Amino acid sequence: MRVPAFLIYAVMIVLGALAISPIFFLMDVDAMPGDIVINQQNLHFQIPVFYSLATSVSLPLLFCCWRR
């Protein structure tokens, strides 16, 4: 059974975002516009959408330029 390429890319982006999230938490980065932030009584949860998209775009461009 062959897995569609878009599904593989989607999983890679989600895993990348999950891997990068703790790094941004340690850096104490403020929320950017477009990020998802949930603040409740004992819960603070932030999904860095902007940073994840910026990383997902910049790294392939960097690797493409590096290969040439």
What key attributes describe this structure?
68 residues, mainly alpha, two-stranded antiparallel ribbon, 2 helices, 2 strands, 62% helix
Folded structure, characterized:
With 68 residues, the protein is mostly helical. It has 2 helices and 2 strands, in the order αββα. It has a two-stranded antiparallel sheet with strand order 1-2. The relative contact order is 0.14.
Mean pLDDT: 79
Shape: extended
Strand content: 5-15%
Spell out the helices and strands N to C: HEEH
Largest sheet: 2 strands, antiparallel
- The largest beta-sheet arranges its strands as 1-2
Note poorly predicted spans. Answer: none
- The count of DSSP E runs of length 2 or more, i.e. the number of strands, is 2
Radius of gyration: 15 Å
Content-based structural category = mainly alpha
**Percent of residues in helices:** 55-70%
Task: Tell me the span between the first and last alpha carbons.
Answer: 34 Å
Q: Tally the helices.
A: 2
SSE layout and pairing:
Layout (H helix, E strand, L loop, with lengths): L4 H23 L8 E4 L4 E4 L1 H19 L1
Antiparallel strand pairs: 1-2
Helix pairs in contact: 1-2
